[in-house]
Design goal:
By secondary structure, the protein is α+β, with helices and mostly antiparallel strands. The chain contains 4 helices and 12 strands, in the order βββαααβββββββββα. A hairpin with a 2-residue loop joins strand 11 and strand 12. The protein is globular and about 45 Å long.
């Protein structure tokens, strides 16, 4: 039996209490997206997107954040987001068990030069907010940077300007603030905000 302490600062792995930042998630089982073969197709699209960036983007001399993503780049980035949400659900179940599933989640995914990055992700359950750190663009949620009760965490939506050129969710908790940035047109903060507010409301308080 595993689980977090009430304040989210410790995790019981069944034999030992570990400080939350020391928890390393094992390799997660394949998601439905991976099993369907879509992951390899997505990676092929990413390679094509890089070619388009170097062929056309630099030819116009525009910085990455001023370039309009090509029609081929956005679909694979959307796929990366959907794949990550499936991973978040698995990671949440691994940490909290099947009785506390993820109700909503979002991941940082935005263009950087000729590729995309996804570094942080947030999952909301009925009793907790968890912020994960992802090990690589092709990896998985590997570490935990924040776990807190909904009443001990604050989540705010930020515009592209205040999210530093990308729309963002700012998650604040006992150990700091974490900004999860997303690409305009793909980033969907509302389900996370709604789930968090409902979780807070379930405690008798308001967000």
């Amino acid at each position: 039996m595993s689980g977090f302490s009430d304040d989210g600062r410790w995790w019981w792995d069944g034999t030992t209490w570990l400080a939350t930042p020391q928890v390393v998630l094992p390799q997660l089982p394949p998601t439905e997206f991976e099993q369907s073969g879509q992951l390899n197709k997505m990676r092929d699209r990413r390679s094509k997107g890089r070619w388009l960036f170097w062929t056309f983007g630099l030819g116009f001399g525009l910085p990455a954040f001023l370039q309009s993503p090509s029609p081929d780049i956005l679909p694979y980035a959307r796929d990366y987001r959907l794949w990550t949400l499936e991973q978040l659900a698995l990671a949440t179940t691994y940490l909290l068990g099947p009785d506390e599933p993820m109700l909503a989640g979002e991941t940082s995914i935005y263009d950087v030069g000729d590729s995309w990055t996804r570094g942080l992700a947030v999952a909301v359950t009925a009793a907790r907010v968890v912020v994960f750190r992802i090990d690589s663009v092709d990896g998985q949620p590997r570490w935990i940077v924040l776990v807190g009760r909904p009443t001990d965490v604050n989540i705010e939506a930020r515009s592209a300007v205040f999210g530093f050129l990308w729309p963002a969710l700012k998650v604040s908790g006992w150990n700091g603030q974490w900004t999860i940035r997303g690409q305009p047109g793909m980033f969907k903060p509302e389900p996370v905000l709604d789930a968090w507010r409902q979780a807070v409301k379930g405690t008798g308080r308001t967000a």
